[in-house]
């Protein structure tokens, strides 16, 4: 893999073993990520965002398992068929992952430099000095003192510094597909802006394909080229970020945008979505997963899974998307009269 790869997720289903049996955290997810793009995945907590991201590395751990589907990555093939040494080499060398809690991916007993050398040895890097030089260059590119950071333990670094260390470790072996899981969580606004700028600049300079998981629509709007919206383990809308946010087609996407607090104007315009997101135990086995909270709910939503409707380079999975606007208004009026 020497150039930005494309990714094709097809019919991906991930289940978790519970006292109630195996319940799906993802069901029938399909997603195409174009080479060289930054794709964001947004949705409320529990929507399946991180499970999808881990599936791209074939890294879903028990009690979860990937039950069906494929994840094809240019240069690697179907990652779900890889195992053992082949899978270990793919992770890190071809696929970089930045974890949500950066401190959890760092060994508290070792300096960052020692962990870097361990990473290099595990992937057959022969010249540690070149690896250290590249790591220092990346850290300094991100506004850090490379020598000081490599000589530090994780507790000696701030949250923003640890996050940048995570980005460095994901990139230092020249991975061209990078997955960032909530890279700005728990960071102050200034550090968050710095991290977002670094992500965009490094993405362009290194020619990456990047997937960013976030619950913050503002973050997605700032950085991403395309946006995928998830709810209840399903992909409900996908398309260019400016189009999805500017004219959302799925009622859940509209609800997320309407719930964003305003800094000016009428504060009452921000409206929280009614109800709560489903859990593994409350996900419906048939029909639309969003129907209990949807203002456009119709009778067909109770029994039939909504088809994914394509409009150009945009997709939305909603029965109402197929109806003319007049029909949607009638259904809504009858439902909530």
From TrEMBL:
Which membrane topology describes this protein?
Answer: Peripheral membrane protein
GO terms, molecular function:
ATP binding
Q: Which Pfam families does its entry note?
A: ABC_tran (PF00005), oligo_HPY (PF08352)
Q: Keywords of this protein's UniProt record, alphabetized?
A: ATP-binding, Cell membrane, Membrane, Nucleotide-binding, Transport
Q: Does the keyword Cytoplasm apply?
A: no
Give the matching InterPro entries. AAA+_ATPase, ABC_Ni/Peptide_Import, ABC_transporter-like_ATP-bd, Oligopep_ABC_C, P-loop_NTPase
> Where is it located?
Cell membrane
Keyword presence, Cell membrane: yes
Can you give the residue ranges of the ABC transporter domain? Answer: 7-257
User: What CDD domains would the database entry show?
Assistant: ABC_NikE_OppD_transporters (cd03257)
SUPFAM superfamilies (alphabetical): P-loop containing nucleoside triphosphate hydrolases (SSF52540)
Family according to the record = Belongs to the ABC transporter superfamily.
Protein name as catalogued: ABC transporter ATP-binding protein
Organism per entry? Sphaerisporangium aureirubrum
């Amino acid at each position: 893999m020497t150039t930005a790869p494309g990714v094709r997720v097809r019919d991906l289903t991930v289940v978790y073993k519970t006292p109630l049996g195996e319940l799906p955290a993802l069901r029938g997810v399909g997603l195409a990520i174009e080479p060289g793009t930054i794709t964001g995945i947004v949705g409320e907590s529990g929507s399946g965002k991180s499970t999808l991201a881990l599936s791209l590395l074939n890294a879903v751990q028990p009690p979860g398992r990937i039950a069906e589907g494929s994840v094809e990555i240019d240069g690697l093939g179907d990652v779900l068929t890889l195992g053992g040494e082949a899978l270990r080499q793919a992770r890190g060398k071809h696929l970089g992952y930045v974890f949500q809690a950066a401190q959890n991916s760092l060994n508290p007993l070792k300096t960052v430099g020692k962990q870097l050398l361990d990473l290099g040895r595990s992937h057959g890097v022969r010249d540690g000095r070149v690896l250290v030089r590249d790591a220092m260059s990346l850290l300094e590119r991100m506004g850090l003192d490379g020598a000081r950071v490599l000589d530090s333990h994780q507790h000696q670094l701030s949250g923003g510094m640890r996050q940048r260390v995570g980005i460095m470790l994901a990139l230092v072996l020249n991975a061209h597909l990078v997955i960032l899981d909530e890279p700005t969580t728990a960071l102050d606004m200034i550090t968050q802006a710095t991290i977002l700028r670094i992500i965009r600049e490094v993405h362009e300079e290194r020619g990456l394909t990047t997937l960013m998981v976030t619950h913050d629509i503002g973050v997605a709007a700032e950085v991403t080229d395309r946006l995928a919206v998830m709810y209840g383990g399903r992909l409900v809308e996908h398309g260019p970020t400016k189009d999805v946010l500017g004219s959302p087609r799925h009622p859940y996407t509209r609800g997320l945008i309407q719930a964003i607090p305003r800094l000016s104007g009428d504060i009452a315009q921000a409206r929280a979505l009614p109800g709560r997101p489903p859990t593994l135990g409350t996900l419906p086995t048939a029909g639309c997963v969003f129907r209990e909270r949807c203002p456009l709910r119709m009778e067909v939503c109770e029994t039939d899974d909504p088809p994914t409707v394509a409009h150009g380079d945009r997709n939305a999975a909603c029965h109402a998307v197929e109806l003319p606007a007049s029909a949607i208004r009638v259904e809504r009026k009858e439902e909530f009269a």
